[in-house]
Amino acid sequence: xxxxxxxxxxxxxxxxxxxxxxxxxxxxxxxxxxxxxxxxxxxxxxxxxxxxxxxxxxxxxxxxxxxxxxxxxxxxxxxxxxxxxxxxxxxxxxxxxxxxxxxxxxxxxxxxxxxxxxxxxxxxxxxxxxxxxxxxxxxxxxxxxxxxxxxxxxxxxxxxxxxxxx
Length: 166
What we know:
By secondary structure, the protein is an alpha+beta fold. It has helices spanning 23-29, 79-91, 143-148, 154-160, and strands at 7-11, 17-22, 35-43, 48-54, 65-66, 69-72, 98-107, 110-120, 132-139.
């Protein structure tokens, strides 16, 4: 589960670190602060997108579907290292994510700077840390229909979909 006292960097719009706080403090400040998050979309060898359902205990979007793996960077953590770590922790696979985009994203309770990655893997997707409770794959040409039929993490959709091969 999430470690509340894990340290994270708070950053400005230009991604300069302005403060280091605990994850719990970052969450308590809600949209008043900005942090870093990585997003790793995984495509299988036959170009199917790996999607997953988040555990019901997750702080943000519990029980929602997600189109990528990823999460908040630890204080001082390099972007590429975080992408590899998140993929291993959440999906249980080792792959070399390729950086395909950088963006910012905001919602009423969240402001973040993001890096978006694509990775290739056919699994197996063992999801060892318990954050993921269900995994399936979707053909890219069926993604729009799939998205319309369920609750999906909006940050992932906004940030990742534009970078998927279509």
